[in-house]
# Entry
Amino acid sequence: MSQASAPRPFLSLILGGARSGKSRTAEARITSLPQPWIYLATCEPRDEEMAERIAHHRDRRGGGWITREEPIDIVEVLDEAPPGVPMLIDCLTLWLTNVMLAEYDVSGECDRLITRLEANDRPLVIVSNEVGLGIVPDNALARAFRDQAGLINQRVAAIADEVVMVAAGLPLKLK
# Structure
C-alpha cells in the first residue's frame, strides 16, 4: 500500500485595489493562526511618503511578527524560513514592479515563484493588487506591468486554495 502524501498547507490570495483593505484582511487571516508569523514585505521606501506607509503597516501589525524585507528574491525568503511558520507576502504587485524595474526576466521569475508556491510548506497568504479594472494605460511600460500583474494573479489564483477580492474593506470570496 502506498503512502498518501501530506496535503499542501493552505495558500490564500487576497486581491483588491489601492486602500481596499486587502492587507488588513490578509493580516487577519494569518493572525488567526498560532504565532510567530512572518511578514514578507516587498516594498522599498523610495521616498518619504512610502516610508510613512511602511511605518503605518508596521505599527498596525503590532507584536508577534517577524518582518523580512525583500524586494525581489521572495523565493529565497520562502526557502530560508522555518517550515510551517505562517507567512504573509505583501505584496505581489510591488514585487513585480521591483522585478520589472531591475530588468530581470519577468517570465522566468514568475515561473520560479509559481514552482515554489506549488511546493508550499506553510500557511501562506499573498496580497496582490487587481490592476485590470481601470483604464488602459497610456504607455508601454504601464501596459506591460498591467498585463504581467494580471497573468501572475491568474497563475497564483489557479493554485490557491482560497481567493478573496476586497473592496471598501469588504472581503468577497471568489474561490
Observations:
- Residues 1-6 have pLDDT under 50 and may be disordered.
- Helices lie at 22-31, 48-61, 74-80, 92-101, 106-118, 140-159.
